[in-house]
Structures are given as C-alpha cells and as structure tokens.
Amino acid sequence: MAKEEKKTQAVENKTNGKISYPLTKINFILMGICLLLIIIGFWLMTGDANVGETFNKNIFESSRVSTGPIIAFLGFVLMAFAIIYRKKDKSAQDDDTIDVKE
Prior knowledge:
Elements lengths: L1 H6 L3 E3 L4 E3 L4 H20 L17 H23 L5 H6 L1 E3 L3
Antiparallel strand pairs: 1-2, 2-3
C-alpha cells in the first residue's frame, strides 16, 4: 500500500476524496509556448561560419548576435514561470482534481 502512494505524484485530499495534480493543463500549454520560443531563438542563431580564409560578414547579423539569444533566454526564464504558475480562483482547483472512489 505504501509503495502505491510513493509511485504517484498526485496528492490525495482525504476529506473530499479528490486527487490534485501539481501541474495543470495551462502549465503544459505555457511550457509548450516557452519551448517554441527556445527553438526559435536557437534557430535565429544558426548560420554559416567562417570557412578557410574567407570572411563571412553574416556572423555579425543582429539576429544571430542579439535577437536570437534574447528570445532563447526569455524562453528559459518564462519556462520557470510556466512550471510554477497556478490559478488563484476556485474553478481552477476543480479542473485539476479527479474523484477517487473508495
């Protein structure tokens, strides 16, 4: 019985028989948006490098030097917010709970 309780990350409320999960649907949506921002930021930083004795001026473009890193950094910072975000109102608590039949 104790092993079953350790396997799940859900928290069961003994008074009303509901299970509350730590992450809700909105958390996963926000994390997906942040992941997309990180991918876009790294995509903006890609490009050709200097090859041999030829100089490639494109390595100093603003999208590779400033825009891409800023977007990727915002994605990482907002990912932390997306993980800890929790709605305050009562209806949000009902959305992420499941009835447990004993």
